[in-house]
Protein backbone atom coordinates (compact mmCIF):
# COMPACT_ATOMS: atom_id res chain seq x y z
CA UNK A 1 0.00 0.00 0.00
CA UNK A 2 1.40 3.43 -0.85
CA UNK A 3 2.20 5.93 1.89
CA UNK A 4 -0.22 8.45 0.34
CA UNK A 5 -3.02 5.86 0.54
CA UNK A 6 -2.24 5.17 4.19
CA UNK A 7 -2.15 8.89 5.02
CA UNK A 8 -5.46 9.48 3.22
CA UNK A 9 -7.03 6.51 4.98
CA UNK A 10 -5.85 7.78 8.35
CA UNK A 11 -7.22 11.25 7.66
CA UNK A 12 -10.57 9.81 6.53
CA UNK A 13 -10.79 7.45 9.50
CA UNK A 14 -9.86 10.19 11.93
CA UNK A 15 -12.42 12.61 10.52
CA UNK A 16 -15.14 9.97 10.37
CA UNK A 17 -14.61 8.76 13.93
CA UNK A 18 -14.15 12.21 15.45
CA UNK A 19 -17.24 13.84 13.98
CA UNK A 20 -20.38 13.31 16.04
CA UNK A 21 -23.29 11.75 14.18
CA UNK A 22 -26.42 13.87 13.93
CA UNK A 23 -29.19 12.80 16.29
CA UNK A 24 -31.73 11.70 13.62
CA UNK A 25 -29.20 9.41 11.95
CA UNK A 26 -28.56 7.65 15.25
CA UNK A 27 -32.24 6.76 15.37
CA UNK A 28 -32.13 5.12 11.93
CA UNK A 29 -30.21 2.06 13.02
CA UNK A 30 -28.45 0.83 16.08
CA UNK A 31 -25.21 1.17 14.11
CA UNK A 32 -24.82 4.07 11.70
CA UNK A 33 -22.79 4.00 8.51
CA UNK A 34 -19.05 4.43 8.87
CA UNK A 35 -18.87 5.17 12.58
CA UNK A 36 -17.01 1.95 13.41
CA UNK A 37 -13.27 2.19 12.79
CA UNK A 38 -13.17 -1.45 11.68
CA UNK A 39 -15.81 -0.79 9.05
CA UNK A 40 -13.97 2.31 7.85
CA UNK A 41 -10.68 0.43 7.48
CA UNK A 42 -12.46 -2.48 5.79
CA UNK A 43 -14.00 -0.08 3.30
CA UNK A 44 -10.70 1.69 2.64
CA UNK A 45 -8.92 -1.64 2.20
CA UNK A 46 -11.63 -2.97 -0.17
CA UNK A 47 -12.21 0.03 -2.43
CA UNK A 48 -9.56 2.59 -1.49
CA UNK A 49 -9.89 5.85 0.43
CA UNK A 50 -11.39 7.91 -2.38
CA UNK A 51 -14.16 5.46 -3.25
CA UNK A 52 -14.76 4.75 0.43
CA UNK A 53 -15.31 8.48 0.97
CA UNK A 54 -17.70 8.47 -2.00
CA UNK A 55 -19.62 5.57 -0.42
CA UNK A 56 -19.87 7.54 2.82
CA UNK A 57 -21.14 10.58 0.90
CA UNK A 58 -23.78 8.36 -0.72
CA UNK A 59 -24.81 7.05 2.72
CA UNK A 60 -25.14 10.59 4.09
CA UNK A 61 -27.25 11.72 1.12
CA UNK A 62 -29.49 8.67 1.41
CA UNK A 63 -29.96 9.18 5.14
CA UNK A 64 -30.89 12.84 4.69
CA UNK A 65 -33.36 12.02 1.90
CA UNK A 66 -34.97 9.24 3.97
CA UNK A 67 -35.39 11.61 6.92
CA UNK A 68 -37.12 14.13 4.63
CA UNK A 69 -39.32 11.73 2.67
CA UNK A 70 -40.22 9.11 5.28
CA UNK A 71 -39.62 10.64 8.73
CA UNK A 72 -41.91 8.22 10.59
CA UNK A 73 -40.62 4.94 9.14
CA UNK A 74 -36.85 5.10 9.43
CA UNK A 75 -36.36 1.72 11.09
CA UNK A 76 -37.65 -1.33 9.19
CA UNK A 77 -40.28 0.73 7.33
CA UNK A 78 -40.48 2.58 4.02
CA UNK A 79 -37.81 5.05 5.07
CA UNK A 80 -35.35 2.30 5.91
CA UNK A 81 -36.08 0.48 2.63
CA UNK A 82 -35.73 3.72 0.66
CA UNK A 83 -32.45 4.61 2.40
CA UNK A 84 -30.83 1.28 1.55
CA UNK A 85 -32.09 1.48 -2.03
CA UNK A 86 -30.94 5.05 -2.58
CA UNK A 87 -27.58 4.50 -0.86
CA UNK A 88 -26.78 1.62 -3.21
CA UNK A 89 -28.09 3.42 -6.29
CA UNK A 90 -25.86 6.40 -5.47
CA UNK A 91 -22.87 4.14 -4.87
CA UNK A 92 -23.39 2.62 -8.33
CA UNK A 93 -23.33 6.15 -9.75
CA UNK A 94 -20.20 7.11 -7.77
CA UNK A 95 -18.07 3.94 -7.55
CA UNK A 96 -19.66 1.30 -9.80
CA UNK A 97 -21.88 -1.69 -9.11
CA UNK A 98 -19.14 -4.12 -8.09
CA UNK A 99 -17.64 -1.86 -5.47
CA UNK A 100 -21.10 -0.78 -4.30
CA UNK A 101 -21.99 -4.42 -3.61
CA UNK A 102 -18.70 -4.99 -1.83
CA UNK A 103 -19.20 -1.98 0.47
CA UNK A 104 -22.88 -2.70 1.16
CA UNK A 105 -22.36 -6.42 1.83
CA UNK A 106 -19.49 -5.65 4.20
CA UNK A 107 -21.69 -3.15 6.03
CA UNK A 108 -24.52 -5.64 6.46
CA UNK A 109 -22.18 -8.48 7.47
CA UNK A 110 -20.42 -6.33 10.06
CA UNK A 111 -23.53 -5.52 12.05
CA UNK A 112 -25.26 -7.66 14.62
CA UNK A 113 -28.81 -7.25 13.51
CA UNK A 114 -31.67 -9.76 13.45
CA UNK A 115 -31.63 -12.13 10.47
CA UNK A 116 -34.87 -10.74 8.98
CA UNK A 117 -33.49 -7.17 9.07
CA UNK A 118 -30.27 -8.26 7.39
CA UNK A 119 -32.19 -10.12 4.67
CA UNK A 120 -34.42 -7.08 4.12
CA UNK A 121 -31.41 -4.76 3.90
CA UNK A 122 -29.54 -7.03 1.47
CA UNK A 123 -32.64 -7.27 -0.74
CA UNK A 124 -33.18 -3.49 -0.76
CA UNK A 125 -29.47 -2.92 -1.39
CA UNK A 126 -29.69 -5.18 -4.43
CA UNK A 127 -32.77 -3.36 -5.75
CA UNK A 128 -30.91 -0.09 -5.28
CA UNK A 129 -27.95 -1.28 -7.32
CA UNK A 130 -30.30 -2.29 -10.13
CA UNK A 131 -31.90 1.15 -9.98
CA UNK A 132 -28.43 2.70 -9.94
CA UNK A 133 -27.50 0.83 -13.12
CA UNK A 134 -30.76 1.93 -14.78
CA UNK A 135 -30.35 5.58 -13.78
CA UNK A 136 -26.60 5.99 -14.26
CA UNK A 137 -25.99 9.11 -16.31
CA UNK A 138 -29.47 10.47 -15.51
CA UNK A 139 -28.50 12.08 -12.22
CA UNK A 140 -29.01 11.35 -8.56
CA UNK A 141 -32.57 12.69 -8.65
CA UNK A 142 -33.61 9.93 -11.08
CA UNK A 143 -32.34 7.30 -8.62
CA UNK A 144 -34.04 9.09 -5.74
CA UNK A 145 -37.38 9.11 -7.58
CA UNK A 146 -37.06 5.46 -8.59
CA UNK A 147 -36.24 4.36 -5.03
CA UNK A 148 -39.07 6.50 -3.64
CA UNK A 149 -41.49 4.88 -6.10
CA UNK A 150 -40.17 1.42 -5.22
CA UNK A 151 -40.69 2.13 -1.50
CA UNK A 152 -44.22 3.43 -2.09
CA UNK A 153 -45.39 0.70 -4.48
CA UNK A 154 -44.17 -2.22 -2.38
CA UNK A 155 -41.22 -3.28 -4.54
CA UNK A 156 -38.86 -2.77 -1.60
CA UNK A 157 -39.13 -4.95 1.47
CA UNK A 158 -39.93 -3.70 4.93
CA UNK A 159 -40.79 -5.31 8.23
CA UNK A 160 -43.36 -2.78 9.42
Provide the fold topology:
Layout: H1 3-18, H2 23-28, H3 37-69, H4 78-95, H5 97-110, H6 115-135, H7 140-152
Helix pairs in contact: 1-3, 3-4, 3-5, 4-5, 4-6, 4-7, 5-6, 6-7
Organism: Rhizophlyctis rosea
Signal peptide: 1-18
Region (Disordered): 105-160
Describe this structure as you would to a colleague.
76% of the residues lie in helices and 0% in strands. The protein is mainly alpha-helical. The termini are far apart. Residues 1-31 have low confidence and may be disordered. It has one domain (3-152). The protein has helices at residues 3-18, 23-28, 37-69, 78-95, 97-110, 115-135, 140-152.
Task: Characterize this entry briefly.
By secondary structure, the chain is mostly helical.
How much β-strand is present in the residues? under 5%
Shape: globular
| First and last CA, distance | 44 Å
E-strand count: 0
The H/E string reads HHHHHHH
Helix content: over 70%
Region (Disordered): 105-160
Signal peptide: 1-18
Pfam family, one: DUF6973
Biased composition (Basic and acidic residues): 105-121
Amino acid sequence: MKISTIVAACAFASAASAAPAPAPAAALEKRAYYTDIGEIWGCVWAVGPIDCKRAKTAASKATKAAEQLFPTSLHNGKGDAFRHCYWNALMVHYIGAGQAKEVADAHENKGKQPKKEKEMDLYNNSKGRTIGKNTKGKGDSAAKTACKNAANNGTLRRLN
